[in-house]
Structure formats: C-alpha cells, structure tokens
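note to self: dont lose this again. the chain is below, predicted strucutre after it. 537 aa total, dont forget to put it in the shared folder this time
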Amino acid sequence: MTTEARAHPRLRSPRLWSVAAQTFTLQAVVALIVVTAGVVGAYVQARHYSNSRATAQVVAVAQSVAASPQVIAGLHTADPSVRLQPIAEAVRKRTHTDFVVIMSPTGTRYSHPNPARIGHTFVGHIAPAAAGGQVVEDYTGTLGPSRRCVVPVTDGGKIIGLVSVGIRKQEVRHQVSEQLPAVFGAGLLAAVLVGLGTLLVARRVRRQTRGLGSRQLQEMYDYYDAVLHAVTDGLLLTDLDGRVRIANDEAVRLLGLPTDFAGRAADDLGLPAPMVATLTDDSTRHDELQIASGRTLVVSKAVVAPGGKPLGYVVTMRDRTELVALTGELDSARSLTDALRSQTHEASNRLHTIVSLIELGHTDRALNFATEELDQAQGLTDRVVGAVHGEPAITALLLGKAAQARERGITLLIEPDSVVPEDAAPTTDLVTIVGNLVDNAFDAVSDLDGDRIVRFDAQVTDGWTTMTVTDNGPGLSGDVEQAFRRGYSTKESGQAGRRGVGLALVAQAVARLEGTVEVTGPPTRFVVRLPVGRVAR
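---
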C-alpha cells in the first residue's frame, strides 16, 4: 500500500464502490452534463433571439424611415440636415435604437446622434443599398460595434438618399444578460430536482442491493449458483403465490420439472396433489415423506423472511427411495425373524413337554400331543395354500403372516379362492404391497382387548387384480387421503417410523405399477387395484 493510499483509507477504487454509489455518481454526472448543456443551449438561444430581434428591429425602423414622406421631402431641400436631424432623433428615441442616420446616396450624413458628425462620411458598407439593395451587418462605427441596417430612400424610382439604423452590440448583450437570471435559475432548479431524484434512486438501490458493489454481487451470484448446483439435495424456491422461482438440478430431476418451470405456478407443472399443496400452502414442514415421479422423497419447507418480511419459501428434498426400500425389506426380515423366534420358543416348549411326558412314562399322551401339533401346523398350511391361488410368493408370504398372527393372538382370515395372478406385478412389488398392508393391519389391532381380526382377499375382474386388507382396529385418524402420501402412521411416536415407511412403500410400488390405492374406514379397509399383464416381470 502506498503512502497516499494509507493517508486516505476511505478512498476506494470505483470498481469497489457499491452499486448505489456507482448509480448515484453516474446519474449525477449525466445530470450535470444535461443541465450544463441545457443552460448553455438556453444562453445561446437567448443570444440568438436577441440578435434576431435586434436585426428585425433595425430593418423595420430603417424601412419605415425610408418610406416616410417627411424624409423624402427633407432630402429635396437645400439643407436636408435642418429638417432631417429632428426627425431622425425623434425616431431614434421612440424606437429605442442607438442611431438613425439619414445620408446622401454617396454617404454624406444629414443626421447623427452626435451633431458634430453631421456632414461627415458614413462609416460602413453602403454600396449594396446605393444600388437599390439592403445591407444588414455587424460593424464597428463611430459609436462602437453595432447591429445595423442600410436601406435606400427612393422617389419616383430614383434613389435620393440612404437610411441606416443601428443598435449597439453592448445593448444586445445587455438584453441577453437580462435573461440570464431566468436561464440560470431554471438550470439550478433543474439541477436540484435531478439531484434529489438521483439521491432517492440511489438510496432505493442501496436498500435493494444491501450496499454491495457490482463485483461483490457478481461474486455472491457465482457462489450461490455454484452452491445451488453442487448440493446433492433438491433445493427449490417459491414465492408467496406458489410460483416456482428457482430449482437446482437435483430438484428438477426428482420432480421431473419441465425446462420452463421458472415463474410457473406449482399446479401447472404436473406434480402430485400433495407436492402441489406443499409448494403452495403457508405451512412449514420437516422431514415429511412424499411420493413424486415414482420416488420416495423426504421433504422439508421453511419460510424465507429477511428482516421479518416473508418473501417466499425454500423447499428441500432428499431422495430416499432406496433407503425406504431397504428399510421395508429390513422390517419384513425383522418381522419374520420375530415370528421364527416365537415359533422356535414355542417349539422348544412343546419339545420339552413331549420329553417330560416320555420321562414320566406317559408315552401315549406324548404321542397324541405331538400329533395334534403337527395336525395344527399342517392344517394352517392347507388352509392358506387352498385359499390363495396364483403367485407362489404371495402364498408363502401369507403362510408366514398366518403363523405370525397366531403367535400375536390375531385371527388372519384369508378369503377362499383368493387369486393373485403371477403376471399381476413383479414378485418383489407384490410382496412389498401385501406384506406391508398386512403388517399395518396387525399393528392396528394389536392393542385391542377383544377379538383381533384381519382379512385378506384378492380377486381378478376385468383385467384388474383387486387386493383388499381389512382390520377391525380403531381406524385412521385425520385425513385418510394422506395415509399413503406422507408416511401416515397411528403408532406411538417412538414406533411410527416403521409403519409410516411401509405405507410409503405401498404407495410407491402402486404408483410405479400404474395402479390405484384407496383407504376407508372404520373398519379400516385398504384396496389396491393393479392392471394384470401390463407390467413386465
């Protein structure tokens, strides 16, 4: 840093000035130039006007004097100056001109403001006037620089004399100077008004740009744009009217937004109704599950209110499709593990009972006990296998769910002749849908004091597979239409995560298979309809 720069720390390069300062400076300079140009132009115009007025005046007075009968008569006398001098002086005073000179065709004066000049030769150009023309010029004569006109005096077509009328340039300048206060006053007023307007504009620009310079704004834009496109989460900004203003690449991908999304209303972008509601309502959200474009998204929404004034909302979204799918698979594995653990524990108890009966010598009772257990297990298998036709994986799934229901004290009723065609959907999707709906029903009735009943039915009608799961639980609370859309759950707060994820998985799978899902109640009834044979396995 130089000594001069250290001595003036407040002086900054114009490139570091704020946008407001640059705007003010630029407008002030332009205004100064415009006002100055206006004042100079007004001055030039005033001077031109004064010269033009002086010219018109001397021409008119000269022609009037030349046409006067008294002047013509005076020129025919033996001593013209005696008669013409009083006439000329009277005209001069009456017209506020500086001189009215009547002379002979050769230039000998018959009149003059200074009588001592009478009889002397006129100083100036008179040849054109003596030839019948007219002379208008600026010339320095005996009275100084003047604007003058010389015209001939004729009588019967013969030139008998000349008339010259003039106004000194000093008088012309005096006329101009009389107009200068008005000109400069108008210029000063214009400068003040322009200055105030410029100041107001600069203050407004300063508020809008927060006192930042153009370079700082450019750097801020570059940084924000880089961050916007670098984050792995979807980021979307909406205004208070629900129009999408900004969306990064991930948000465009997750929501399937068109390229011309900027400035369009959320309900005009082909988004699901829950997502449209999220983008347009005034409520905030935190880690809410939603389905969009076949993906499970965790959505959060917060208001943007700099200085306490709401400007819009920022919506973040994370793709949790694979995580939710893995969570669902983990839930299924955990539930089967629990069922197997319960069955192992019960089998161990029964085996100990059989061994104890044999040790006590009750072999017949031990044999009957073991046979009854096998009959019950086989009967359960026969009922499930006999009731469900079509997809073997669903049969196996329901067989495991039946065993699990038995362990939990729940009655699982499978409607006879239930049919789940093998081409209804990919096996993994069918297992996800049926498994999560049945688990959801088990959870719904698990706290009942009386009978706990869950029903499953599957039928094929008009090319659609309809699967229905019903339970006699307390039903859904709140808006049933939100049950699948936002990871709905009626579990306790510490357990709601698993069930909410399961319902989200069902909604995701059904949407991907181009099917529908409905929920009514109480009693709670989930109905899933899938097109048969439309989705490749």
